[in-house]
Amino acid sequence: MYRIGGRLIFDLYGKSHGPCVGAVLEGFPAGMEVDFDLLNEEMSLRKPTGRIGTPRRESDTPEFKEGLTDGVTDGGNIRIEIANKDTDGSKYMKFYDTPRPGHADLPALLKFPNHDLRGSGQFSGRLTAAMVAAGALAKQYLSARGIEIQAYSKSIGDVRDVNVRDPEEIRGSRMFPTRACDAETDKRMRLCIEKAGAEGDSVGGVAECVITGLPISFGGIWFEALDAELAHSMFGIPACKGIEFGDGFALAGMNGSVSNDPYRYENGSIVTTTNHLGGIVGGMCDGSPVVFRVVFKATPSIGKCQDTVNLKTGKNDTVEVTGRHDPCIVPRAVAVVEAMAAITVMDQLLRE
Question: Residues of the chain with pLDDT > 90: what percent?
């Protein structure tokens, strides 16, 4: 199992071509009635769509093995399993000799002598299905307390959404396959992904997440800082290669007189007039929405010929990837970003 969390402990297990992938939530409070319609909606957002996703099709129906009684959390460990049924490991055998560049194949084979490469084993994005299932429960718990988490595709390839999106617009991204916030951007992103896929290539992108409803001072400091723990959970998502809060790396070119977010009273509440810092200072919320962006690299499994080594012959070689792979994982990763953010925020909420 792979573990994260302090009060709400999240364990992840399984492999792409094993019998199932699963998750355990330890410390989830008793008494929450699970809305299975909302749960299934979250699961559907992670599924591949048309030519912008993998041809692999799974029902992704979460089975609750323990932790629920008549659909209500009972205070015990919640164990969720999702069956793997549409598996085909035949295309992966050659990677034992010629590992894929940009993938975990090479270090995994050297670190784990019995590593199962089928579907990329425990390094597969398939495990994110369990992340989304567990995160859906956390999102329901938080929503009942006025905390909402919404994410969308900020950019895919060279297509970038330059608008500042509010939570309602971001929620509207659920209508579009690419998780863009409007039809025109969705079309451009879709064409970008389809073009890369047709050329045997792939593209990366950025998911932006906005968290609302957190009070001033929510969070922690140093290694328990809210941004530190969000970063920790985001880097647990396969293909994540970077995260920034607020204006992120652009802050390096700003004076303090610009990057500081001024405080004002508004209708009896303290607000900030700007949000360059992404709603977090000193590891705690400052009253603005928490805003962060997660960078996902292009899928390493591509049809183009790539240089690699042959572990069997000890010589240089090439490899071409065939089989079922996403030409871009960003549209599906958006739901995973929301899920892991929800688990992280709920964990901190229970520790408050």
Answer: 82
